[in-house]
Design a protein that fits this description.
The chain is an alpha+beta fold. The protein is built from 4 helices and 4 strands, in the order E-E-H-H-E-H-E-H.
Length: 120
């Protein structure tokens, strides 16, 4: 995951499939709001990022174990939005840094993680 896209991969399905969740704050939106002022752009970006993390949090709540990985700090920022929420007390979350990957590499990473009991 990064600040604009998250690939949701469920290990329970075979073959593994991914669903894409995207932030609505696109590069075009940034340029458009930046032309109206830096402060407006920053507020809009924070609002859209919050909505993106909220959408992901609602999905995460439905799982027992979640693996967050990616090249940016977005995974940590997402975790910080829900870590103290009692609704997530039953969700085990693991966070790992990872380089940008292809979809096949992501699937292999998820498969390896959940197939190896020593890692969890």
């Amino acid at each position: 995951m990064d600040h604009s896209h998250a690939h949701l991969t469920e290990f329970a399905t075979d073959p593994i499939e991914s669903k894409l969740v995207s932030s609505t704050f696109t590069h075009q939106e940034k340029i458009h709001t930046q032309n109206k002022g830096e402060n407006l752009m920053h507020n809009k970006e924070q609002h859209e990022q919050g909505a993106y993390y909220k959408e992901l949090s609602e999905i995460i709540r439905g799982y027992d174990h979640v693996l967050l990985f990616g090249p940016t700090s977005a995974k940590d920022e997402l975790y910080n939005t829900f870590k103290d929420n009692p609704l997530f007390k039953e969700v085990s979350v693991s966070i790992f840094p990872a380089d940008k990957m292809t979809e096949n590499q992501e699937h292999a990473y998820v498969r390896d993680y959940f197939s190896n009991p020593k890692i969890k």
